[in-house]
Amino acid sequence: KLKTKLIDLHGYTIENANQVIENFIIKSFEEGVSKLIVVTGKGLHSKNQNNPYVSKDLSMLKYSVPEFIENNKNLSKIIDSLQDARIEDGGSGAFYVHLKKKSE
What predicted TM-score, i.e. pTM, was given to this entire model? Predict the structure, then answer.
């Protein structure tokens, strides 16, 4: 059975999110997890409308996290692919990370 894990990055700064996601991906790979669901949020929370910086920063994660992953040499060795999430897993506010199989 394929193991899936979910991580929610709502509320993280870009630096924190990158640190957290790197550790999470490596740990999940070590545990033999095959698919990760990474929730970044869409950055469009209505209560932040008065503060455009907050919502703008949240939506930044949607772009910065996948980019960070793809440019990270440690991670690119253990990742098979990234893919947009289906609607039920968060749609455009989330994405999948498919991990390579850990060789015994």
Answer: 0.82
